[in-house]
Amino acid sequence: MTVTPTLDGDVLAVLANHDGIFTTGQLHRLLTRHSEEGIRKVLRRLTKQGVVLSDRVGNAFAYRLNRDHLAAEHIIGLAQLQKTLLERIEDRLESWEILPVYAAVFGSAARGGMAEDSDVDLLLIRPDDADDDRWETQVHELAVEVTRWTGNDARPLEFAEAELADRAYDEAVLRDVARDGLTVAGSRAWLTGRLRKRKG
């Protein structure tokens, strides 16, 4: 789900998702994989283009997205791709004939660190009495749609509800989902409760 895999895109994503102002140092603390000098150069260029506004604060400059710029609504839309993806997945899951007990997006798609070759990882917990064929059809259709929406492969990880007690080798994945996953169906409290029972 990478549309602008550049420093410009990362800087604009931060500015678009927040109404406040940021110094170069503050942006660098958020975008640690980029150098502060690189961020400064991008901000100068974007300010010259009018996409970003700069204000002097003491001895430093602070920057914010120019929300009146013609490109602003498109920049904001790109910055909110993760939110849009989650909303679409939630809508699809709500329309399923067999509703999942719990579902979440996890991994890099949840952390906001997706690259061109990243997968969209989905945890899907199905009811124990679900019809296997119908369930698998739903999952396949969702995976195809998510891939079409994002350009990244969708990788569903599926369990029946009763299987959670028996899948000790997936403990790390389930803990990751409980800690960082973004719930798109059901309740995170339900998952954490099941994990506590496994541990006990």
**SS-based class:** alpha+beta
The strand order across the widest sheet is: 6-5-4-7
Number of domains: 2
CATH homologous superfamily heading of the largest domain: Beta Polymerase, domain 2
The main pleated sheet reads as: 4 strands, mixed
Helix segment tally: 9
What is the 3D shape?
elongated
The level 1 CATH classification of the largest domain is Alpha Beta
Task: Please write the string of helix (H) and strand (E) elements.
Answer: HEHHEEHHEHEHEHEH
- Total beta-strand segments: 7
Could you report the average pLDDT, rounded to the nearest whole number? 88
How big a fraction of the residues is strand? 15-25%
Could you name the CATH topology of the largest domain?
Answer: Beta Polymerase, domain 2
The portion of residues assigned to helices is: 40-55%
Pfam families: NTP_transf_2
Protein name: Polymerase nucleotidyl transferase domain-containing protein
Organism: Amycolatopsis alba DSM 44262
Domain Polymerase nucleotidyl transferase: 91-141
